[in-house]
Amino acid sequence: MTAYETILVDRKGRVGLITLNRPKALNALNSQLMNEVVEAATAFDRDPEIGCLVITGSEKAFAAGADIKEMQDNRFPDVYLDDWLGPWDRLGQLHKPVVAAVAGYALGGGCELAMLCDILLAADTARFGQPEIKLGVIPGIGGSQRLTRAIGKAKAMELCLTGRMMGAEEAERAGLVSRIVPAADLLDEAMAVAETVAAMSAPAAVMMKESVNRAFETTLAEGVRFERRLFHAAFATADQKEGMAAFAEKRTPDFRHR
Ligand code: CAA
C-alpha cells in the first residue's frame, strides 16, 4: 500500500478506512493531506474488493478546516490558475458510498469534507461550523452550497455569517447528520454501517448513491426518470437475480457485486 504522511489507510473486509492524521494541527487540510485523501479514496473506489469507504479524524478534531498557515499568503492569480482546492471535487465524484465519522471539530473545510461524504455519523462531541467569515473569506469546498441544501437557508445563513459552531444535537435536528453516537463507539458504528453497505450488491449501492445524489442536481420529474432507468438497469445484474432468488428461497443473498 502507498506510504502516506498525513493520513492512515487501512482496510477491513470490504471497507476502506482513511484516518486524517495531522494531530498537531487538528487535522487542518493542507495540500498534501488533500492530495493524499483524494489519492487513497480514488484507489479504494477503483478496488473491486472494496464496497464502501469511511473517512474519520481524531477524538478532538475531524478537521479544523483548510490550513490557514499554508494559505495565508496565497495570491489570487496563483490559486485561480492552480485551481486550488479543486481536487476535493473528486471526492464528491466517487462511485462508492463514503461514511464520514465525525468527532470533535468539523470546521470550514472539515465540515465541507464531511458534507462531501454520503452518510454522516456524528459523535456526541462533534461541532460543525463554517467560520471562514472570521478570517475574511468564505467557504471554498462547497460549504455555502451543501450546508444550505442540508439544513436550509435560515440556519445556513446564520452559521455562515456569524461563524457560530453547532453541536451534534443541533446538527442532527437540522438534518446535517444521520445519527449521533457516543464518541467511544463512533468508529465501530461507522465501520458497522460501512460493512452493511459494502455487503450489499455493489452495482445496486453505486446506483443508489447516484440516484439519491441526482435529487440535488435536477428536477423531480427528471430525477424520477433517472431513478427509473437505473432501476430497469439493475435487472441486468447477476446480483438482482441472486437477491430476489434468495428472498424467494428464504436465505441470505450471496452477492457477487456484478
Ligand atoms: N489551519 C492551520 N492550523 C490550525 C488550524 C487550521 N485551520 N486549526 C487549528 N490549527 C492549529 C493551531 O494553529 C495550533 O497549532 P500550534 O499549536 O502550532 O499553535 C493547533 O492546531 C491547535 O489549535 P488550537 O491551539 O487553536 O486549539 P484550540 O483547542 O484552542 O482551538 C479551534 C480549536 C477552535 C478549532 C481553533 O484551532 C480554530 O479556530 N481553528 C481554526 C478554525 C477555522 O477557522 N477553520 C476554517 C479554515 S478556512 C477554510 O476551511 C476555508 C475553506 O472553506 C476551504
TrEMBL record:
Reaction catalyzed: a (3S)-3-hydroxyacyl-CoA = a (2E)-enoyl-CoA + H2O; a 4-saturated-(3S)-3-hydroxyacyl-CoA = a (3E)-enoyl-CoA + H2O
Organism superkingdom: Bacteria
Enzyme Commission code: 4.2.1.17
Gene3D superfamilies per the UniProt record, alphabetical: 2-enoyl-CoA Hydratase, Chain A, domain 1, Lyase 2-enoyl-coa Hydratase, Chain A, domain 2
Any one GO molecular-function label of the UniProt entry: enoyl-CoA hydratase activity
Key words, A-Z: Lyase
InterPro entries xrefs: ClpP/crotonase-like_dom_sf, Enoyl-CoA_hyd/isom_CS, Enoyl-CoA_hydra/iso, Enoyl-CoA_hydra_C
Keyword Iron-sulfur: no
Family matches, as PANTHER family: ENOYL-COA HYDRATASE, MITOCHONDRIAL, ENOYL-COA HYDRATASE-RELATED
Family per similarity comment: Belongs to the enoyl-CoA hydratase/isomerase family.
Protein name: Enoyl-CoA hydratase
Source species taxonomy: Bacteria, Bacillati, Actinomycetota, Actinomycetes, Kitasatosporales
